[in-house]
C-alpha cells in the first residue's frame, strides 16, 4: 500500500500540475458537504465511472492512483472477479495522491468518459508498469488505446469544472473513510486497505454478501 501524502504537499502538487483543484475549496460554497461524503455519495455518485453489472447485488468501490504499482497488480485480479461473478457493480474513484502526473492521468481518464472511453483510458494507464510514470507516457498510452485525443482535450476544457468537483469529492470521501493510501476498497460493509489476489477478493465478496444477508 502506498501512503497518502500530507494535505499541504498535495496542495503544492496540484499547483505544480496547473489544476484548479485544491485540497481546500476555491470558494466557501465549494467545501465538501455531508452529502458529498455520505454512503449514498460514495456508492452512487452519478459522475463516478462504473463497470460490471449495474444491477449487481454487491458494490465494490476502488480508490486508486495511476502511479500506484500495487493498484496495477491488483487491477486484473479485481477485473477477473467482476467478470466471473457477474453480479458485482464496480465503482472507480480516481484518487490522484502520489504525484502531479497522477493528477494529469486522472483528469484525462475522466475526460475520456465523455466519449464513453473511460475504460480504455483507465486500462491503458493501468497497463503501464512501475510507479512515477510521466504524464507524457500516460498520454501516449491513452492515444494508442483508440481514444480521440482532440475530443478528449475539448471535453476537458468544456467539463473541467465538473472533473475538478468529482476529484474533490473523491478526496473528501477518502478522508471521511480514513483511507491512508492506495489501493483501497469498499466491499459492501468492509473496508480493505491492501491489494488482494483473485481468491482474496472472492473471499471478501462472499463475506460481504453473508453479512448483508444477516441484516
UniProtKB/TrEMBL annotation:
Residues 25-210 form the Thioredoxin domain. It comes from the Bacteria. InterPro entries: GLR_AS, Thioredoxin-like_fold, Thioredoxin-like_sf, Thioredoxin_domain. Keywords: Disulfide bond, Oxidoreductase, Redox-active center, Signal. It holds the Pfam family Thioredoxin_4. May be required for disulfide bond formation in some proteins. Belongs to the thioredoxin family. DsbA subfamily. This is DsbA family protein.
Amino acid at each position: 500500500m502506498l501512503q497518502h501524502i500530507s494535505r499541504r504537499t498535495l496542495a503544492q502538487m496540484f499547483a505544480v500540475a496547473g489544476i484548479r483543484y485544491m485540497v481546500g475549496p476555491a470558494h466557501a460554497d465549494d467545501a465538501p458537504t455531508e452529502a458529498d461524503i455520505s454512503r449514498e455519495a460514495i456508492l452512487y455518485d452519478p459522475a463516478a465511472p462504473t463497470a460490471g453489472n449495474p444491477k449487481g447485488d454487491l458494490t465494490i468501490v476502488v480508490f486508486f492512483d495511476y502511479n500506484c504499482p500495487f493498484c496495477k497488480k491488483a487491477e486484473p485480479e479485481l477485473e477477473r472477479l467482476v467478470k466471473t461473478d457477474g453480479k458485482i457493480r464496480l465503482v472507480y474513484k480516481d484518487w490522484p495522491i502520489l504525484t502531479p502526473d497522477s493528477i494529469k492521468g486522472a483528469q484525462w481518464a475522466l475526460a475520456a468518459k465523455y466519449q464513453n472511453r473511460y475504460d480504455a483510458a483507465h486500462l491503458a494507464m493501468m497497463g503501464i508498469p512501475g510507479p512515477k510514470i510521466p504524464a507524457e507516457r500516460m498520454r501516449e498510452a491513452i492515444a494508442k488505446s483508440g481514444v480521440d485525443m482532440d475530443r478528449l482535450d475539448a471535453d476537458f476544457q468544456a467539463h473541467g469544472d465538473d472533473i475538478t468537483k468529482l476529484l474533490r469529492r473523491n478526496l473528501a470521501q477518502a478522508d471521511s473513510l480514513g483511507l491512508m493510501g492506495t489501493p483501497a476498497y469498499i466491499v459492501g460493509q468492509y473496508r480493505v486497505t491492501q491489494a488482494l489476489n483473485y481468491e482474496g477478493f472472492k473471499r471478501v465478496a462472499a463475506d460481504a454478501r453473508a453479512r448483508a444477508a444477516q441484516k
